[in-house]
Write a structure and sequence with these properties.
Elements (H helix, E strand, L loop, with lengths): L1 H6 L17 E7 L7 H9 L6 E8 L7 H8 L4 E2 L3 E4 L2 E3 L2 E3 L4 H22 L1
Parallel strand pairs: 1-2, 2-3, 2-4
Antiparallel strand pairs: 5-6
C-alpha cells in the first residue's frame, strides 16, 4: 500500500458510473492507507467532474486516524462542497488476527454515525 502512495500510482477503475451527473450529494467511503487517501479513491475523484456537487467523506482506520485523507479529498474536488467527514477506528489486525468492532464499541459507533448523519442533514437541507 505504501508504494502506491509514494509513487503517485493511480489505478485504473474497472467500474464506470455513467449517470453520476444526476447526483447532487456523493458519499465517498474509504479506509486509510498509510495515513493517506487510497489511490483508487484518488483515481475516482480525478476521473469524474464533481463540480458543484456536495461530497461527504467517511473513513475507517486502524489506529492513526484519517491522516491527510480528508484534506486530499478537498484538494481533488476544489469546485465541490466537502462536508464534515466521519472517521472511526475500525478493526485492528495484530499478528494476522483481525479484531472486529463489536459489543459496546459497535453501539457507540452506531450512535456516532446517527449523530453525524443528523448534522449532515441539517447542512444539506440549508
Amino acid at each position: 500500500m505504501a508504494w502506491e502512495n509514494e509513487t503517485g500510482f493511480l489505478p485504473p477503475l474497472r467500474t464506470r458510473i455513467t449517470n453520476i451527473e444526476q447526483y447532487d450529494v456523493i458519499f465517498v467511503g474509504f479506509p486509510t492507507w498509510d495515513m493517506q487517501l487510497p489511490p483508487p479513491m484518488k483515481s475516482f475523484l480525478k476521473q469524474y467532474n464533481l463540480s458543484g456537487k456536495t461530497i461527504v467523506p467517511f473513513n475507517t482506520n486502524a489506529v492513526y486516524g484519517i491522516g491527510s485523507s480528508f484534506d486530499t479529498v478537498k484538494a481533488l474536488v476544489p469546485r465541490s462542497t466537502v462536508l464534515e467527514g466521519f472517521s472511526v477506528r475500525g478493526g485492528i489486525e495484530r499478528d494476522g488476527v483481525l479484531f472486529v468492532m463489536e459489543g459496546n464499541k459497535e453501539k457507540q459507533v452506531k450512535t456516532e454515525v446517527k449523530a453525524w448523519l443528523k448534522r449532515l442533514d441539517l447542512l444539506i437541507s440549508k
